[in-house]
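Budget justification aside, the reviewers requested a transparent look at the raw inputs and outputs of the sequence design task funded under Objective 1. We therefore reproduce one unedited record. The lines immediately below are the structure tokens for a 289-residue chain.
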């Protein structure tokens, strides 16, 4: 028997699991239920696919100022920081590009004439953010999908630690994960680094993780292929087109999942300069070309 309990569920279009390092089954079940409930709360609150949450209200505000709660405001502040740190390459207003791009593995690449008008509706500086009031220009939208899953991983881990400080967990949502401490007997967790070009094969690297976070960004599941050219779902919000010469995937170790995820995404947005960007950040990383 493993020295931890495993809870599995679906959320945020990803397989989710919590590995709970304790020998108390009742406590493990309590923590598993808390993890699932909190993950689904965050998904319901910030999903762009729902019509009953704050994101829907913002995106359908018709240029009216919307007052947001503290949690949403904190994510908007973080989004503003990401925009600045990435020189405008990470922009939560770029979700409107999905009106042109459908990354379903087909060869349906949109025409430039379809993409160009959408650029007028993109740009963090075009909205007005005076915490706690957010105002969008007509036609603009926000999409927190680029940070939502990593935020959920960190938040769920924090909630579990607050509920049972003595229990260490590994929270893993679709390969983005955080460990609050080692397994029982101080044994580290083993995390695999996958290569998207070798689907189904053994991981290309194994990481022994006692505490910290690991996140991956890449085009393993979302892409288009036309004339032997692969179009990644990582889009440049300034051009509306996929970033060129980017690696297939980038994985990063960091203190928190949201930090690891942002570094991995920022690296992909750098295209051919991804490796140099990560080296400058002085972090542990893996790149699959």
């Amino acid at each position: 028997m493993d020295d931890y309990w495993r809870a599995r569920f679906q959320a945020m279009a990803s397989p989710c699991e919590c590995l709970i390092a304790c020998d108390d089954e009742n406590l493990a079940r309590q923590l598993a239920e808390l993890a699932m409930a909190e993950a689904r709360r965050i998904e319901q609150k910030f999903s762009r696919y729902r019509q009953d949450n704050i994101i829907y209200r913002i995106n359908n505000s018709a240029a009216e100022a919307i007052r947001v709660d503290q949690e949403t405001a904190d994510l908007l502040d973080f989004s503003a920081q990401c925009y600045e740190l990435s020189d405008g390459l990470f922009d939560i207003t770029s979700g409107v590009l999905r009106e042109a791009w459908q990354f379903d593995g087909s060869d349906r690449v949109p025409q430039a004439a379809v993409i160009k008008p959408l650029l007028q509706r993109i740009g963090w500086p075009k909205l007005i953010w005076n915490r706690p009031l957010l105002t969008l220009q007509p036609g603009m939208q926000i999409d927190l999908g680029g940070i939502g899953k990593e935020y959920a991983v960190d938040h769920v881990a924090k909630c579990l630690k607050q509920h049972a400080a003595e229990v260490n967990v590994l929270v893993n949502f679709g390969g983005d994960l955080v460990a609050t401490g080692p397994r029982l007997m101080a044994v580290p967790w083993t995390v695999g680094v996958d290569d998207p070009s070798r689907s189904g094969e053994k991981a290309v690297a194994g990481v022994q993780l006692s505490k910290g976070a690991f996140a991956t960004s890449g085009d393993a599941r979302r892409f288009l292929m036309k004339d032997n050219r692969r179009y990644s779902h990582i889009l440049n919000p300034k051009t509306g087109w996929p970033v060129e010469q980017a690696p297939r995937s980038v994985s990063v170790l960091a203190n928190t999942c949201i930090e690891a995820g942002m570094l991995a995404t920022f690296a992909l947005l750098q295209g051919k300069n991804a490796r140099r960007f990560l080296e400058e950040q002085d972090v542990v990383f893996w790149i699959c070309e």
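The mean pLDDT is 94. The first helix runs from residue 25 to 46. Computational costs for records of this kind are itemized in the attached budget.
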